[in-house]
Amino acid sequence: MVSYLGLALAIAGAAIAALLSGMGSARGVGMVGQAAAGLISEDPSKFTKVLILQILPGTQGLYGFITAIMVMIKTKLLSGDPVMLTPQQGLAVLMACLPMALVGYFSAVAQAKVAASGVSVVAKKPEQQSKAMVLSAMVETYAVLALLISLLIILRLNF
Prior knowledge:
- It is a single chain.
- It is built from five helices and no strands.
- The chain has helices at 5-42, 47-55, 59-74, 87-124, 129-156.
- The longest helix has 38 residues, at 5-42.
- The two termini are 19 Å apart.
């Protein structure tokens, strides 16, 4: 009898990476969007400056998506002939997805808080927008590191 438990665990890992990172990004982009809407209602000329800040917390969702795609490539789900994984192998894939899932969610929310504060900077001193972007981008570093860890583990798994 063929067991699909291993493959199911791998798919769960991919789903968790995409879902949590995507949820964090959606929440983050929404938070910055709310702050930006208040500013552009007063000064529509600052739209482009705050749009850039709003985009930043959206990258974690993209990183989670990339992680999920890598799992689907590694397990050959996209080819239609998936590899039958043992439960241990499936669990290894799931665990490999956790750095991106968890750091993706929390870093998107943290980055949104910094970017929303950056909207306040742009409101008072628009010429300081680049400094607000740098502060927000610093949080991005940890999402990138989580993506690299997840991808390196996924790529090193043998099955």
